[in-house]
Amino acid sequence: QVQLVESGGGLVQPGGSLTLSCAVSGVFFTFNPMAWYRQVPGKDRELVASIERGGNAHYTESVEGRATISRDDARDMVYLRMSNLKPDDTAVYYCNIPTSLQNWGQGTQVTVFS
């Protein structure tokens, strides 16, 4: 059974930075692309960034230039570094396998406030 455990969220002022972490188990991590998503109450979950097996990364336009997704295949971890955070980045952030979505983890809350 695949388990996804997100962490690293918190309260941050506009312009600040955070690094989110996701621990993945129950799957051959190296063989899978990974992605970060976010969701605001009342809205659909949004794909924020994805990273392919070989490390190629893709970002949604709203975080382009402010986000960096990375993966550690030795530790089965995926990270999302976000800088210059904006109030619109406030959401619960989740990781998952974009090509075969698994049960969602609990997510990690990011709140950007002034």
How widely separated are the two ends?
Answer: 40 Å
Question: How many strand segments?
Answer: 10
Beta-strand portion reads: over 45%
How many whole angstroms does the radius of gyration measure? 13 Å
Low-confidence stretches: none
Strand order of the largest sheet: 2-10-9-4-5-6
Largest sheet: number of strands, sense, barrel closure: 6 strands, mixed
Molecular shape: globular
Please count the helical segments.
0
Helix content: under 10%
Please state the average pLDDT score. Answer: 96
Assign the structural class, choosing from mainly alpha, mainly beta, alpha/beta, alpha+beta, or little secondary structure. Answer: mainly beta
Order of helices and strands: EEEEEEEEEE
What's the SSE blueprint?
Blueprint: E1 3-7, E2 10-12, E3 18-25, E4 34-39, E5 46-51, E6 57-59, E7 67-72, E8 77-82, E9 91-96, E10 108-112
Parallel strand pairs: 2-10
Antiparallel strand pairs: 1-3, 3-8, 4-5, 4-9, 5-6, 7-8, 9-10
Summarize the structure.
By secondary structure, the chain is mostly beta strands.
What brief labels describe this structure?
114 residues; mainly beta; 6-stranded mixed sheet; 4-stranded antiparallel sheet; 0% helix
What does this structure look like?
- This protein has 114 residues and is mainly beta.
- It is built from no helices and ten strands.
- The chain has strands at 3-7, 10-12, 18-25, 34-39, 46-51, 57-59, 67-72, 77-82, 91-96, 108-112.
- It has a six-stranded mixed sheet, with no helix packed on it. A four-stranded antiparallel sheet has the order 1-3-8-7, with no helix packed on it.
- Strand 4 and strand 5 form a beta hairpin.
- The model has no long low-confidence stretch (mean pLDDT 96).
